[in-house]
Amino acid sequence: xxxxxxxxxxxxxxxxxxxxxxxxxxxxxxxxxxxxxxxxxxxxxxxxxxxxxxxxxxxxxxxxxxxxxxxxxxxxxxxxxxxxxxxxxxxxxxxxxxxxxxxxxxxxxxxxxxxxxxxxxxxxxxxxxxxxxxxxxxxxxxxxxxxxxxxxxxxxxxxxxxxxxxxxxxxxxxxxxxxxxxxxxxxxxxxxxxxxxxxxxxxxxxxxxxxxxxxxxxxxxxxxxxxxxxxxxxxxxxxxxxxxxxxxxxxxxxxxxxxxxxxxxxxxxxxxxxxxxxxxxxxxxxxxxxxxxxxxxxxxxxxxxxxxxxxxxxxxxxxxxxx
Length: 323
Hints:
Helices cover 36% and strands 29% of the residues. The protein has eight helices and 18 strands. It has helices at 2-16, 37-56, 59-83, 206-215, 235-243, 255-259, 274-291, 310-322; strands spanning 23-25, 32-35, 87-90, 96-97, 102-110, 116-123, 130-134, 138-146, 152-155, 159-163, 170-176, 181-185, 199-200, 218-223, 250-254, 260-265, 295-299, 302-307. The strands form five sheets. The protein has a five-stranded antiparallel β-sheet with strand order 2-11-10-6-7. A four-stranded antiparallel β-sheet has the order 1-3-5-8, with no helix packed on it. A four-stranded mixed β-sheet has the order 13-16-17-18. The longest helix is centred in the first third of the chain and has 25 residues, at 59-83.
């Protein structure tokens, strides 16, 4: 317990000295090098060779010892230079749903005229590495994944990059604290109930809306949206469009649709648990978006006016993630 607490304290002090940023230029001041277990074993072997050569006065032993030692020294210099001078850039993370892994894309830029081999990226202490070679005067993208615990806005965890090229006797590594955050949406309910019924527009009596729906009154047409009832499709126009080589479909707009609007309300879910409510609302948002209908959102005192499209869907999901 004491050793773990001491290590955590030293680790926190070390990370506090690394200013957060979404870009990192690797220099001698932020690149570190330590021998690997194979490196320590090689050092012990070289020590034994040196002692044996001295004891038995073996000239070939001296030659082999210093040849291997020179190779290790050159490998240490090459290993450090493989990571030093590399530029790292974190692309803006895409929002994810709770329970799914968030994918981080790190772009490695190499301004050197030689290829950098065996560059690894990972979330610190995760042990799950992604490896890549960076071409000369080019760039490569490495994808690193981590799993947020719950919905909300989460900071990107501390990342680490390392290489053991060319001999594997040294580990050259760095620590990187990005400043970006990942937005995590609630996980949608697996089998949600149908969308709630529409509400009359302000100033429109509910009886008038129901009468228009029963009478089947129509007012104009619009482009067909996936999910529209087939009885609303204007088939005569579809036949004429097909005759001229077009597949465009149009649907009738009912007065009932114009007099009602769809609101996804937390109270309409019928659930007491907050997270269950958000999961159902998330599923309803995705369902309404697939159907191409206008919908609004009311949850936790926040109100998003009815609309549709990619931006509106993202806005509703963001409200659900942060409420």
